[in-house]
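Subgroup meeting minutes
Present: P.N., E.W., G.H.
Scribe: E.W.

1. P.N. recapped why we're keeping a running log of single-chain structure predictions: easier to compare across weeks, and new members can see raw inputs and outputs side by side.
2. G.H. added today's entry (411 aa).
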Amino acid sequence: MYDYAVIGGGIVGVSTAMQLLEARPGRSLVLLEKESALGKHQTGHNSGVVHAGVYYSPGSLKARFCKQGAAATARFCEENNIPFERSGKLIVATDESEVGALNALAARCDENGIEIEMLDASELKRREPHIRAVAGFLVPATGITDYVAIVKAMGTRITASGGEIRLNTSVVNIRESSEVVDVITCSGEIRARFVIVCAGIQADRLARMCGIEADFRMVPFRGEYYRLPASKNGLVRHLVYPVPDPDLPFLGVHLTRMIGGYVTVGPNAVLGMAREGYPRFSFNQRDTLETISFPGFWAMARQHFGFGVKEMWNAIYRRGYLAVCQRYCPELTLDDLEPYPAGIRAQAIMKNGTLVHDFLIRQTTRTLHVCNAPSPAATSAIPIGQHIVDLALGGRQDKLNNSGVQTREIQ
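Output recorded in log:
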């Protein structure tokens, strides 16, 4: 029997397991991951950005964890010789209609204690000659890194602390009693005194195994990226983002200087027909039926119908996608949009159609489930992991219940 079992080998699960062993040295722990390596899903399919915390409501866990996480990620990279570059992010208004929203974002940065530099059109042009905008601001603290390398380093620390990592081990069922939790896997049964589930896009299914109310559903949104040709590696000096829609948890198609020296464009946000279907037109019958049979999906679809149609059109027709990019980078052409792997955003939707913007955590007596860990979860993985460890070891939520996290104290 193990003291702890952690399900999920993405960056949140691995960070949690690492810090749990550091908090309780000598305890037994097993990390279960269904894939052949750690970080194969959201962790390995994102843009590698270390966010500063620009967009998040002051006082929310997102805002707090992102700022803490950016600093913690930089330290972890330095300690483990992982590439990290503080490239800075430019958020730009492409016309006067976006300036009000840009200024509101700048005010939010001030509330969140994030340093920015306001830039007019001429200064933007000087710093980024290929970008067209009427105003913007620079967030110097934003960086880029390799999150898969971070997960591998965390995995090394888990095993060095006596933890066990089991790959190719999918969970079939979870049975909880008053004393233990039995985790039934494809390769046998594992027994633990406490189980932490960080299952990403599969979070709702594992939560239901433990009898947690099914008032939310994980819905996949495909984020499609393109890579610019090598001749465009010097196109931008910073990360360049448009002003996002504040009602949506998506940041818009942006230009990202990756840690490997090349530039990507993306992602958009298109409803996925498969929870883990990265190739275009992927389809899984069970995943699709679970999405369209959920009342919250249709409520959400009605609220954001126009956005959804536009994103689908731009996904099918590259000229539409290109037009989005050309609003702030007019010299891009269709030939510049080279293939690049897509990602899947695991988005929790409540029964009333609300998109869950913050972290969502549910608990039973002997299990804890991270049911929604949206961007910037990769940036925030270290403080998120610490928060989960605190909960698992009996810490109280105090006044955090209004932040979007739903929990009960572990007994």
